[in-house]
Write a structure and sequence with these properties.
Number of domains: 1
Structural class: alpha/beta
Bound molecules: zinc ion
Number of strands: 15
Distance between the termini: 27 Å
CATH architecture: 4-Layer Sandwich
Largest sheet: 7 strands, mixed
Length: 266
């Protein structure tokens, strides 16, 4: 199975365009939160309308999976916690989103919402417990914030979600796809990939320009590759330790969509 992870596009519409241009080369495209830009000039409601249009276009090109991030919260629930209520409109497009799970053969993908308080956090706890009981060979989570560790390092401090560390220890998923800490892959002591026990975790980070930082994963080739303006790296998923090696060109398994990526590598 070939997966593409992007996140934190923050209303960079050119980056949505790029994602659409490579989407047909993947079995699933995962956008792990922060679709909107709350610091942006444009009203949040207007941004939502535009992003929904882009997501609809993307969903016609590949299987798309979308989680919320902290920039996507558009209202408060009855308990006063901020929520991304517009994810229900994402679901109406046929796109699995917060609280959903989707099966690709024997791979199960669980999509977690951003949690702003104890009620939403408990709902994530229940969601993971529910899906832990489902049969699968491989289990993938989509979760905006990375766990505490190199993926949550911004060069000054850690901004990880300790609740996620505990859930990973309990359930031992195969892969967790995150975002949130834009600088982590670029900082000394940070990274785009990490391993906790048997679980691989990825955070592609964020960069300016038309091409988003992104992670491509081939679960059959057992490799994951990260692409950015600062270079590209590869890890082998069967390695017990994280050994990032520099990539000078895209791996063969990227196939037809590799040319665009090669162009992005410069
Ligand atoms: Zn972000």
């Amino acid at each position: 199975m070939k997966l593409l992870l992007v996140s934190d596009l923050h209303y960079a519409l050119k980056q949505f365009d790029w994602t659409a241009s490579v989407a047909p080369g993947f079995d699933a495209v995962i956008i792990a939160g922060d679709h909107l830009d709350i610091a942006g000039q444009l009203d949040g409601g207007v941004q939502i309308v535009v992003i929904l249009k882009y997501l609809r276009r993307l969903a016609a090109l590949s299987k798309v999976i979308v989680s919320s991030g902290n920039h996507d919260l558009d209202r408060r629930d009855a308990g006063g916690e901020k929520i991304a209520s517009w994810m229900s409109k994402v679901r109406q497009l046929g796109i699995p989103t917060d609280g959903d799970s989707v099966a690709f053969g024997d791979t199960l993908v669980t999509v977690c919402p951003w949690w702003d308080g104890p009620t939403a956090r408990d709902s994530v706890h229940e969601l993971l417990a529910r899906d832990a009981a489902k049969p699968r060979k491989q289990w993938i989570w989509v979760y905006h914030a990375p766990p505490e560790g190199p993926l949550s390092w911004d060069g000054k401090k850690h901004h990880g979600d300790a609740a996620l560390n505990a859930w990973i220890e309990t359930h031992r998923p195969d892969i967790v796809l995150t975002g949130h800490i834009h600088q982590a892959p670029f900082k000394q002591g940070g990274s785009w990939c990490d391993r906790m026990g048997d679980t691989w975790i990825f955070n592609s980070g964020r960069q300016i320009g038309p091409t988003p930082t992104h992670v491509a994963i081939d679960t059959r080739a057992r490799e994951a590759a990260w692409f950015s303006l600062a270079g590209a790296e590869l890890v082998k998923l069967d390695d017990a330790l994280v050994a990032r090696t520099e990539l000078t060109g895209p791996p063969a398994w990227l196939g037809a969509s590799a040319e665009k990526r090669e162009a992005a590598l410069g």
